[in-house]
Amino acid sequence: MLIESFILRLIRTSFPNLSKIHTLVYSLTFYNMKQILSIIAMNLMLLSVSFSQPRNVYDIYALEYLKGSSRTPASVIAPGADPKDSVDFSYFIWYLNGDNGRKVLVDAGMLEDRTKSSNYLNYVRPDLMLKRINVNVNDITDIIFTHPHSDHINGLELFPTGTIWMQKKDFAYFVGDAWQKGANHLGLDKQDVKCIIQANLDGRLQLVDGDSIEIIPGIRVFIGSRHTFESQHLLVDSNAGKVLLASDDSWFYYNSDHFLSIPLTSDKEAYAKELRRMKILVGDPRLIIPGHDALVLERFKKVAEGVVRIQ
After folding, report:
1. Which of 12, 31, 52 marks a domain boundary?
2. Is residue 148 within 8 Å of residue 196, measured between CB atoms?
3. pLDDT category of residue 114 using cuts at 50, 70 and 90
4. 211 in Cβ contact with 224 (< 8 Å)
5. For residue 29, how many C-alpha atoms fall within 13 Å in the half-sphere facing its CB?
6. Local confidence band at 47 (pLDDT 50, 70, 90 cut-offs)
7. Which of 245, 239, 233, 279 has the alpha carbon at shortest distance from 259?
8. Judging by beta carbons within 10 Å of its beta carbon (0-12, 13-18, 19+), is residue 99 exposed, middle or buried?
9. Same domain membership, residue 149 and residue 28
10. Is the dihedral of CA 280, 287, 128, 151 positive or negative?
């Protein structure tokens, strides 16, 4: 009421010749204007708050730290493939730079001594690959391991900081049952077991138990492919939309394009089924990012040598 009286007195003083009805109309106009301005101010305040809140989206980078030395028949990586088809192997880590301050490394690659016994080319240590996009090892807030094969987990000792995320069943098999008599430990290494156990003792390890779990805002993990005992892949919210980092749950675009399982899985039907689910989770099949396909470097924009941004 005080504001209404003030506006009415102001109008009468400023416009003494106005009739009472005109005075009432002007007073209502000024009063409504005040309400409108208040509403606008409130909305602007809410808008500024919403802009200051993180959207939990990530810039996603694929970094090639190693190459295969020759083309491989597609039938080797996808039984049932056309015998005339072939693929090129690459080895990647992935970096996710979030607007929420999270700086996430997906897999850690491997150290150089592991590459000497096989036919590889152009090895660059994973931490030095990150420096090409101005990321230092101490910047990393989180490390997500898709599975514990050496080409994905062996580089852990290069990254002394950050919370480590791994599937609970994969961890249990990796450090336990895999080393029992007659068990399968293909691709696993005892030194890597020691490193992940030490990370657990240091309080860095967070175990994930199950499928379709958001472990970090904007990052959800899925299981089902059984590449290792419980390998996982990631669905990441990005400025380009949803991106699925398949890692070895789809070695190549060839696997996801043809729904063909890799040979290295304990359940080929489950693996193929998971490839089909990936297509449902991501609208654009180009954004299902395989774990070992050199085509990734051709399909996305180069930002540094051996590095592309997924968008």
Report:
1. 52
2. yes
3. confident
4. yes
5. 7
6. very low
7. 279
8. middle
9. no
10. positive
pTM: 0.84
What is the per-residue pLDDT across 54-105, written as a single tens digit (0 to 9) for each? 999 999 999 999 999 889 999 999 999 999 999 999 999 999 999 999 999 9
Amino acid at 77: I
Supply 236's token pair: 């990441």
In this structure, what DSSP letter does residue 114 have? G
Closest C-alpha to 256, from 239, 240, 264, 244: 244
Phi and psi (nearest 5°) for 103? Answer: -125, 100
What's the total number of domains in the chain? 2
CATH number for the domain that contains residue 204 = 3.60.15.10
Look up the domain containing 11 and give its range.
2-52
Full DSSP string of 139-185: G--EEE-S---HHHHGGGGG--SSEEEEEHHHHHHHHTGGGSTT---
Q: 124, 306 in Cβ contact below 8 A? A: yes
